[in-house]
Amino acid sequence: MFGPGVPAILSLIPDTFTFAWLVAILFAAAWLLDSRGLAAGRSLAAGTWALFGLFWLTTVPYFAFEHQSYVESILALVGVPACIYAGYLLYNGRASLFTLTRAISLMLFIYLPFETIPAFSVAGVAVPEPRRILIEAVATQTGFLIDLLGYAPERVTSYEGYNAAYAWTLADGHTVTIHVVLACTGLGSMAIFGGLVAAVQAPLSRKLRALAVSLPLIYVLNILRTTFISVVAGNQYMQWQTDLVLAMFGATDPYRVSFLISDRIMSQLLAVVALIGITFLAVRELPELAVILEDVLYLLTGEEHDLTESLDLPREPTNR
Fold first, then answer.
1. Measuring CA to CA, how many Å separate 83 from each of 46, 56, 63, 88, 114?
2. Residue 121 covered by a domain
3. 206, 225, 256, 264: which is the annotated catalytic residue?
């Protein structure tokens, strides 16, 4: 079906996190070149946007078949042409996209250390990997809320080897184990807002206000989400249309149905709604974010939008 050269080309694509680090570094280099007035910055940024589109394409099989997420699969697929289009527009003169370019780079620099930095020792003192610290903190706070609700699952070791899973024993003797992983910590959403806020040119006070209304809210909502999923899946409260749900996700274990409904459908859709609402709150505090949001809307719709007027935002100086 494919020519003999295709496997060789695909073999050149690095693993996911190496690929992401490469994109982050190239975006940062393009940002630096452009800030010094060098035309090479525009070309490098445009090419890296195309590379970023390829990155999202490589994640589709994981989101679709391993992670079993319709929402994330669709977003990854949409990201492919959107990134290529962003590179095209930037190369052809839409300079405002440099702000989004900076934001993407900063988002990745915030997120990737938690995925890639291993445990290490300093002067004989063992320092755990950052992901472990964050995951176990979220697991502890999730367990606190579970206890408040009157449930008592056993806290056990997760498949990653962390103290970050809850084992629920059902009436039939079957045990359902819910694992807290990095995707359960809200880090991705917090990295998005951190990158957006850091990328715009605005007074520090307004940036801090935007972070103050976004990051804590994301974290609290995320703890509520992990608690909801754990309780629902652990008690099999959403065993609805079992055969249909299993068929939709290509799954075979009926004990996963409540998890698939509560997490992959309900929580992920509600997360999109929540992020839109949090974005509205953040842009009220930091109107400069409107420039980035207008560019994103243009990529998705092909039409210009004036969010400053639509949302009745203060007319603050914005980015380039």
1. 9, 9, 18, 9, 24
2. no
3. 225
Q: Please give the Cα distance from 84 to 42 (Å, whole number).
A: 14
131 and 89 belong to one structural domain: no
Tell me the pLDDT tens digit for each residue of 168-204: 999 999 999 999 999 999 999 999 999 999 999 999 9
Supply the pTM of this predicted model: 0.90
Domain, as residue range, for 260: 126-320
Which class for 254: exposed (0-12), middle (13-18), buried (19 or more C-beta within 10 A)? middle
CA 192 to chain centre: 7
The pair of three-digit structure tokens given for residue 205, joined into one six-digit string: 């006070």
The whole-number pLDDT of residue 6 equals 42
Q: What is the C-alpha to C-alpha distance for residues 102 and 320, in angstroms, rounded to an integer?
A: 12
83 annotated active-site? no
Options 184, 206, 256, 264, the catalytic residue: 184
DSSP letter string over 239-297?
A: --SHHHHHHHHT---GGGHHHIIIIIIIIHHHHHHHHHHHHHHHHHH-TTHHHHHHHHH
Euclidean distance between CA atoms 65 and 144, whole angstroms: 32
Asked which of 52, 75, 95 is the last residue of a domain, the reply is 95
> Comparing C-alpha atoms, which of 243, 239, 265 is closest to residue 252?
243
Beta bridge partners of 177: 167
CA–CA separation, 8 vs 53, rounded Å? 20
Q: Exposed/middle/buried for 151, CB within 10 Å: 0-12, 13-18, 19+?
A: middle
In this structure, are 155 and 33 located in the same domain? no
∠281-85-75 over CA atoms, to 5°?
55
202 and 64 both lie in a single domain: no
Domain for residue 206, yes or no? yes
Q: For all residues of the chain together, what is the average pLDDT?
A: 91
pLDDT in tens, 239-264: 999 999 999 998 899 999 999 999 99
Domain membership of residue 243 (yes or no) is yes
